[in-house]
Amino acid sequence: MQEIHHIQYEHDMKKKALREISRDTGRNFRTVRKYATMEDFNVELRKERPRKGKLDPYKETIDGWLWEDLHARPKQRHTAKRVYDRLKEKHGDDFQVSERSVRTYVSAKKKELAGGNACYLPLEHSPAEAQADFGECSFFEKGIPYDGYYINLSFPHSNAGYMQLFKAQNQECLLEGMKNIFHYIGGVPREIWFDNMSTVVNAIKRDGERDVTQGFLRFELHHGFFSNFCNPNSGHEKGHVENKVGYHRRNFLVPVPQFDDLAEFNRRLLGLCAHDMQRKHYRKALS
Length: 287
Hints:
The structure is a single chain. The chain is α/β, with parallel strands linked by helices. The protein has three domains: 2-36; 56-114; 129-276, Ribonuclease H-like superfamily/Ribonuclease H (Nucleotidyltransferase, domain 5, 2-Layer Sandwich). It is 42% helix and 17% strand. The protein has helices at 2-12, 18-25, 29-36, 59-69, 80-91, 99-114, 171-185, 214-223, 239-252, 262-276, and strands at residues 129-141, 144-155, 160-166, 191-194, 201-204, 210-212, 226-229, 258-259. The strands form two sheets. Strands 1, 2, 3, 4, 7 and 8 form a six-stranded mixed β-sheet that branches. A two-stranded antiparallel ribbon has the order 5-6.
């Protein structure tokens, strides 16, 4: 699968002739031609059970405290120990997370919020570029409560953003949500930025290359886009979608949504997101 991706990249992005690719790779010309023009990479995906850490239900609360700390004096900001103690006070015996886990998360989040004490220039994004990330929320379907997740696909150049809601955060949900958005907007972005979510990345190699899951790579080849990946603990590298995660929650998931059919609600969400495009651009002051 990696070789197919390489052949299509050489042909589509570098505009190399098929015979040149055949010579470079040592592959038969007919094999190169087949892979360069191959479009259907569909395969039946196996459903994965959602993996949820013990700390996950409390991360939004922690993030809120640390965001508030940015406006407080340094000596009045939360330490990891204070975060742990407040969670214990608030949730009592229901809070079954080790102090070490809290310390690890708080340390990473503080570095992310501080940007590593570095200065960053506003990134310029091409019209063909998008960013993707998951958010967490609650909802009711047919009166049954669910702890759900929503995939966000944002377009920094135009400030567009689309979302789809699911009951899990697995690869099947990620790909289904992206496919629904592609079909709705009638196209596919040329490049999409991701963090190192397990639904996409198996591992980060020593040279920084990503070992991408076969299911995601097949989806990428089928739809004809290319992926970029953020450095670990570097949320600012895809800050647009990070902001969209909160914006979508506040504007489309408050109050907690209640509906009878999730698929129908997701169709409504696409329409709401499209209507939201009429707002002025956050930087360009244009609709």
